[in-house]
Amino acid sequence: MDLPKNAYFQGKIVPYSEAKVGVATHALNYGTAVFGGLRGYWNEEKKRLFVFRPLDHYRRFLNSCRLLCMEFEHTPESLTDLTLELLRRDDYRQNIYIRPLAYKAEEGIGVRLHDLKEDLTIFALPFGQYIKNDTSAHVTISSWRRIDDNMIPARGKISGAYASSALIKTDAARAGFDEALVLTQEGHLTEGSAMNIFMVRDGFLVTPPVTDNILEGITRRSVMELAKNELGLTTVERPIDRTEVYICEELFLTGTAAQVTVVTKVDYRPIGKGVMGPIGEQLRKLFLEVARGNNPKYAHWNVAV
Ligand code: PMP
To answer: Which residues pair with 238 in a beta bridge?
Structure first.
């Protein structure tokens, strides 16, 4: 695994090896941190690195901060500027992943959110494909249930909540699957361990609503817009039953890491014809072109370093 070169840490950019916290740090003990995840795409023809939708990512990041009672002076614009400054220093010429992390930095014992010091770090590292099998993934329905808004809000990227995602991912991987789909307590589909889900049924795109314990994904929103503008497909946001994915025409996962990952089998049941379908294939292509900065119509989503 590649390590980051530098990190924005305690108010300045330092070599990654100097960005360290003590073992008594609140966030390390109690999971009281929130994070973001952005991708930077290296465009070889343009010889530039493009960050995908940083303002939208930082808007969500600051909302996640608010969920854990963290107040920063930062704005989406100032965090984007900091990120660009870090990336200019890093000088990557390959695809990267950018991780902003806001955490309760107090060192000591005591579970709470209030009256704690907080801090913010950002680092970036080389990053390629996340799901190897991203045109024919085989997923399972997890036996774990999705965290609920009244337990740990799923609409925020809260570090502690990812212990649940890790249980989901590891059990799926050890059973030989590429990913897992997770149900709410009531049995509706929510998302994968770190990606949103879409299915095609009767020619419509369908995805769970933001009130069904999903992360409000930036890729989800991008794919909905691309589907509407470029393929004339509107997305219906409604609860999805487990067995609907057994009989849907196409199924795919979206996320910063997963990009657009096409699922062709759920628990050994083929989706549609059991191979990548036309809508998933087109959306994959469209999304990757847009993210790399090769589609002028969506250039406002690409921020050049
Ligand atoms: N759901 C979860 C739980 C995630 O961690 C992620 C990754 N951030 C997503 C969905 C996809 O969100 P995005 O498209 O904003 O990366």
So the answer is: none
Tell the burial category of 99 from Cβ atoms under 10 Å away from its Cβ (0-12, 13-18, 19+). Answer: middle
* pLDDT score for 288: 97
CB 165 within 8 A of CB 194: yes
Q: Which domains does the chain have, with CATH numbers?
A: 6-126 (3.30.470.10), 137-291 (3.20.10.10)
Q: How far is the CA of 194 from the centre of ligand 1 (A)?
A: 5
Residue 189 Cα, ligand 1 centroid: separation in angstroms?
A: 15
Is the Cβ atom of 217 under 6 angstroms away from ligand 1? yes
Task: Count, in order, helices (H) and strands (E) of the chain.
Answer: 7, 17
* pLDDT < 50 positions in the chain: none
Tell me if 256 CB under 6 Å of ligand 1: yes
Tokens of 152: 């740990």
pLDDT at residue 121 in the model: 98
Answer whether 215 contacts ligand 1 (Cβ < 6 A): yes
What is the DSSP code (8-state) at residue 241? B
Q: How far is CA 93 from CA 49, 89, 170, in A?
A: 7, 12, 32
Does residue 219 line the site of ligand 1, with CB under 6 A?
Answer: yes
Closest atom of ligand 1 to 219 CA is 14
